[in-house]
Structures are given as structure tokens and as C-alpha cells.
Amino acid sequence: MAFRLQVVFDCNDPSRLSKFYAEALHYKVQDPPSGYATWEAWLKDHKIPEEEWNSAGAIVDPEGTGPRIYFQRMDTPKLGKNRLHIDINASAGFKVPLDERKRQVGNEVRRLEGLGARKDHELEEGRGEYCVIMLDPEGNEFCVQ
User: Fold this and answer.
1) Structurally, how many domains does the chain consist of?
2) Which residue has the higher pLDDT, 141 or 77?
3) pLDDT tens-digit readout, 96-133
4) At which of 23, 45, 73 does a domain end?
């Protein structure tokens, strides 16, 4: 049996990044523990100092199939290119002509820009591959293909 997987982002603002990726990936912010209507109620009940409330956050796939994504506040700056990144498969892939895939990717790129992402550059390879490299609100790279 395979292990369950969680993806972890080190970041400056877990709340902002978790909300961005929840929208970007069609996930949802993880519900508070049973017995609590809000995370704020849980944090208060556990006497977590208010200045620590944005030290972490998590999003989950509402259908329960994708991995949980956890965001933890780190004071260290991002030093360079990510060694790991997310690919958002927004097109129908090689089943459709390249022009149609570009249109599908373009639509998703515009939606993500509206959420706070920035387009970095396009990548098109001779084998019919196409993707757009984007930056999330904290400058982490991810691809839309």
C-alpha cells in the first residue's frame, strides 16, 4: 500500500498562499477540527497567541483524492528557482490540437492572474509540448499545461 502524501510549502504568508492555491487548484481550506465552527475558535480554545495564528494553513481536495497541501511560515527568503513545482493540467493534453491546448491554457492563465499569479514565460517544445510558467503570489514557480 502506498503512503498518503502531503505537499508542504515554506512561505511568508500561509493564509494568503493557502487561499490562492485553494482557488487555483479547486481545493478548499481545510475545515477546522470537529466541534469548532472556525479555526479562530480552535486557536483561541488552544490558547495559541494571536501573533501565531498565521503560522500555518492547509488546503484539501474536496473530493478527497488529491494530496493535502500544507503551508508553513518560514522567515527564510526564497533563494532561487524551485527544485519542485506543481503542474496544473488545464488542457485536454495531446488529444487535442496544439492551438486548442494553447487556448485552454490561456484561459486558465488569465483566471490565475486574476487570483494574484504572474505569467513568467511560455515554453513550447518541438514535440508539441506547451506550457506557461507562472509565479504564485510569493514568487514560487508552477506550470499550466
Assistant:
1) 2
2) 141
3) 999 999 999 999 999 999 999 999 999 998 788 999 99
4) 73
Backbone angles phi and psi of 107, in degrees to 5: -60, -45
Contact 5, 67 (CB under 8 A): yes
Task: Examine the domain organization and report whether 15 and 61 are in the same domain.
Answer: yes
For residue 25, what are the CA distances in angstroms to 37, 80, 102?
A: 24, 24, 19
Packed helices 98-115 and 14-25: angle between N→C axes, nearest 10 degrees: 150
Task: Write the DSSP symbol of residue 46.
Answer: T
Closest listed residue to residue 9, CA positions, set 50, 44, 59, 52: 59
CATH of the domain at 15: 3.30.720.120
